[in-house]
Amino acid sequence: MKNLINILDLSVEEIAELIEVADDIIANPAKYRHVCDDKILATLFFEPSTRTRLSFESAMLNLGGKVLGFSDANSSSSTKGESVADTVAVVSGYADIIAMRHPKEGAPMVAAMHSTIPVINAGDGGHYHPTQTLTDLLTIHHEKGRFDDLVIGLCGDLKFGRTVHSLIEAMSRYSGIRFVLISPEELKLPSFVKQEYIKNKNIEYVQSTSLEDVIGELDILYMTRVQRERFFNEEDYLRLKDSYILDKAKMEKAKDDMIVLHPLPRVNEISTEVDDDPRACYFRQAHYGKFIRMALIMKLLEVKV
Ligand code: CP
Q1: Using CA of residue 293, residue 112, residue 46, residue 78, what is the dihedral sign?
Q2: What atom of ligand 1 comes closest to residue 54's alpha carbon?
Q3: What's 128's DSSP letter?
Q4: Strands laid side by side in the 204-208 sheet
Q5: What residue owns the CA closest to ligand 1's atom 5?
Q6: pTM > 0.90: yes or no
Q7: Each residue of 154-209: pLDDT tens digit?
Q8: Ligand 1 neighbour 52 (Cβ under 6 A)
Q9: Structural domains in the chain, sorted by start
Q10: Which residues participate in catalysis according to the annotation?
């Protein structure tokens, strides 16, 4: 059995295979409609979600499988004090695969240690979000056609933004990557990510507090929301929440073929006036999430077409 806890649990070759399967699912959906007819996905979401939970559910339903689970920790027995370990030990008897989101970093890893079925990390605290990264990679594959030789700007909350951490890990394995890290001082990339996946790999990077100064250099701009739920006090959140707002004026300074990605949900960091710009890919990106999750479920369940 294999789990997906960190994007690095998948080799570059395995990611390429998942993308190939996702592309085939997009082209030939009928071929995949019954491949998981007898399988059940459990979605154990201890934190709010729209895209991740619903795309996982849609993915399993589109493969012919069934779904069960909860979308709110308050409706689970964790409120009575049940541990993650006990929860997954029980759910292992009810389902064939688990997608888990949890506010505590490392919780899906603990779950994997106590589960007899595959566990997928659907986001753990401010740590990692590997299936968002698979979504991002499928989007980059479609919109840019390559993973090498890209200047990638990551903008906003680089401290708590788990999608940023996982994307940096993933992109650090391709060649010719340059990262442009755009954040306020207080929301800079944590050293565990910068040291291990940028500095130790001798990847070129710059840090900036100004989006306007660097937007013209970028092939990809990855905008992120300031993660209110991870702040210790509301005052700091209110001071930092609108640090960056991507609008039409800033887009005029960007390359004609730059793409704008955002894991969503957005708050104010991308003005809605940008939505009609053909370079704005974030809603297409959310749709790609379903197809890559279909491919991932098939891989972890070792389902063949
Ligand atoms: N991108 C993402 O994780 O969105 P949700 O929080 O809505 O799942």
Answers
A1: positive
A2: 8
A3: B
A4: 204-208, 178-182, 151-155, 220-223, 259-261
A5: 49
A6: yes
A7: 999 999 999 999 999 999 999 999 999 999 999 999 999 999 999 999 999 999 99
A8: yes
A9: 7-128+289-301 (3.40.50.1370), 130-285 (3.40.50.1370)
A10: 51-52, 80, 101, 129
